[in-house]
Amino acid sequence: MALSIFDDKSKPPTLAIALKDTLLFWNELKKLIALRFKPLSIDWGYSSKTTGWGMRLKNKVGPFST
Questions:
Q1: Contact at 8 Å (CB) between 51 and 4?
Q2: Is 59 exposed, middle or buried (0-12, 13-18, 19+ CB in 10 A)?
Q3: CB 5, CB 53: distance < 8 Å
């Protein structure tokens, strides 16, 4: 069993489907993070069938470096 619901390498993740009604909260959180760590980019990477896709929020100096 995969640890992630995003275990299909041929299908990039869709947060709207996974988060459903909580997508609004995720967007608000992402906005708050972006205010603190400008500029913010989102990178998706596929590790394996077991772990699936992972999302990394990055800013100019690296993933959440302060």
A1: yes
A2: middle
A3: no
| Residue 59 three-state SS | strand
Amino acid sitting at position 62: G
**In terms of pTM, does the model score above 0.85?**
no
d(CA 32, CA 54) in angstroms, rounded, equals 20
pLDDT digits (tens, 9 = 90+) for 9-36: 998 888 888 899 999 999 999 899 989 8
Handedness of CA 22, 27, 32, 33 (dihedral sign): positive
Distances from the Cα of 45 to the Cαs of 9, 11, 40, in angstroms?
Answer: 9, 12, 16
How far from 52 is each of 7, 31, 38, 39, 44, CA to CA, in Å? 4, 25, 27, 26, 10
